[in-house]
Amino acid sequence: MKSFTISENDSGQRVDKFILKTFPKLPKSLMFKEIRKKNIKVNKKRTDASAILNKGDIIELYLKDDVLEEKIKHYDFTNASKQLDIIYEDNNLMLLDKKVGLLCHPDGNEYVDTLISRVKRYLYEKGEWSPENSSTFSPSLANRIDRNTGGIVIAAKNAETLRILNEKIKTREIEKYYLTVVHGKMAKESDTLTAFLTKDNKKNKVSISNKETENSKKIVTKYTVLDYKNDKSLLEIDLITGRTHQIRAHLAHIGHPLVNDGKYGKEQGRYRQALYSYKIIFNMKNAGILDYLCSRRFEISDCEIVNNFKENKYI
């Protein structure tokens, strides 16, 4: 027999979903059979597979040990770097300044030392989170930015926070602003650009067109010129829609590619595009447990892109 007390992060899900995630060797048909036979109980009472688990519920499984072998947990995150640049932290989330060159999530070349792995190690060593105590949730990033783009990334510490953040990002109640340096002088001091983006997953590249095409998605990018020198413009970008490589490809499409952008710009072989997610505004309403963040803004004041622009380091 095995017994579990449902944590906050495991609450809100169905009994069958929790069991199958926790015990991958347990056949689904056997699980339903044992629920009917009352060998799987919640709070010492008969339960249904579709019943929703709440924090503090006790689930008991009177089954053989061979089918109750728990999902093996790998702790690769403990090998990640301890380096984290924390802008803000509370019980529900963290705002992190991701540096250029660091991946948000693993890819084919880097698995261990990523931003999410560093977050997991940090929270694990603080004692705020442990894989053993949370079967179905682990700290997660609510947004992501490219490896060679730096800036603010939000990490959720619990499932409810992640759900709210995902919803508010989708409804654009969380506003994200970028700083970038582009080639040339913009035609207008401020403008809202509209176009259509098509993604090529195999090449990890997008194309932009002025007219809607098959499989394309509408993009909207608003810019404001902050400064201009040496035929380069320092821009603030208000990202109205958030598509893959949108800023880089959209500005290149209108003839103003980002400095040092080897994929969409002029400098072939350079992949340190001058782009930084420097400001975030929680322009939220009815945010549940995150109501205390409504109307708050966070900004990286000492941004390397601005310093490099002022010091004429972009050639």
Instruction: Estimate the strand proportion.
Output: 25-35%
Q: Which structural class is indicated by helix and strand composition?
A: alpha+beta
**How far do the termini sit from each other?**
68 Å
Strand tally: 15
Helix content: 10-25%
Largest sheet: 11 strands, mixed
Note poorly predicted spans.
Answer: none
The helix-strand sequence is EHHEEEEEHEEHEEEEEHEEH
Q: State mean pLDDT (0 to 100 scale).
A: 92
H/I helix tally: 6
Shape: elongated
Q: What does the secondary structure layout of this molecule look like, with pairings?
A:
Elements: E1 2-5, H1 15-22, H2 28-36, E2 40-42, E3 45-46, E4 58-61, E5 86-89, E6 93-98, H3 115-126, E7 140-141, E8 150-156, H4 159-170, E9 174-183, E10 190-200, E11 205-209, E12 217-229, E13 232-239, H5 246-253, E14 275-282, E15 297-299, H6 304-310
Parallel strand pairs: 8-14
Antiparallel strand pairs: 1-4, 2-3, 2-4, 5-6, 6-8, 7-8, 9-13, 9-14, 10-11, 10-12, 12-13, 14-15
